């Protein structure tokens, strides 16, 4: 909203100066707020179990911000510096980042096929159970969050197994099997 107001006031220097003064502290505060919101999104699985009401409130804030952004976005084909990236889209980006981090940790810590199986049992299956039992109820249906997580986990598991299979030269016969 700040960027839109400033963009519309570019022709009036006095108004632009006033807006810049008024909004000077808004950007860092907005960035900090957004970081806190998306930290909660990255921790959706844990938060859905320990503080589901907090996760639901975070998703409600994201939905409200997305609707507000959509309602004031400039017309297509017009110039504006106004950022129209949907917070809803950022949710998926943050979740993908969180999932990638989990799988990167598994890959880094796995020295054998047995290690991979232990991590799958300890982390992945636990996550999928929590997604099915808790996370789904914290997100609106249009997020299709169960399908999203399932697809992401399947994709990352596939990559993990492909990367692991490339290391077959250093694996024993039992580990390969």
State the end-to-end distance: 58 Å
Supply Rg. 22 Å
How much β-strand is present in the residues?
under 5%
Instruction: Specify the overall morphology.
Output: elongated
Structure, briefly:
With 177 residues, the protein is mainly α.
Protein architecture, described:
With 177 residues, the chain is mainly α. It is elongated. The N and C termini lie far apart (58 Å).
Write the layout of secondary structure elements.
Elements: H1 2-8, H2 13-23, H3 26-42, H4 44-50, H5 52-72, H6 87-109, H7 113-138, H8 145-165, H9 173-176
Features:
177 residues; mainly alpha
């Amino acid at each position: 909203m700040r960027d839109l107001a400033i963009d519309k006031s570019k022709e009036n220097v006095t108004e632009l100066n006033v807006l810049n003064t008024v909004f000077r502290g808004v950007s860092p505060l907005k960035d900090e707020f957004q970081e806190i919101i998306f930290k909660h999104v990255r921790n959706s699985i844990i938060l859905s179990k320990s503080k589901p009401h907090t996760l639901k409130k975070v998703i409600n804030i994201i939905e409200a911000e997305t609707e507000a952004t959509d309602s004031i976005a400039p017309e297509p084909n017009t110039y504006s510096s106004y950022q129209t990236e949907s917070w809803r889209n950022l949710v998926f980006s943050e979740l993908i980042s969180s999932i990638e981090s989990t799988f990167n940790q598994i890959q880094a810590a796995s020295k054998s096929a047995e290690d991979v199986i232990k991590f799958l049992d300890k982390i992945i299956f636990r996550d999928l159970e929590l997604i099915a039992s808790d996370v789904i109820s914290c997100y609106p249906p249009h997020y299709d969050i169960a399908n999203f997580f399932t697809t992401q986990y399947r994709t990352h598991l596939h990559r993990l197994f492909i990367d692991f299979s490339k290391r077959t030269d250093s694996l024993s016969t039992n580990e390969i099997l």
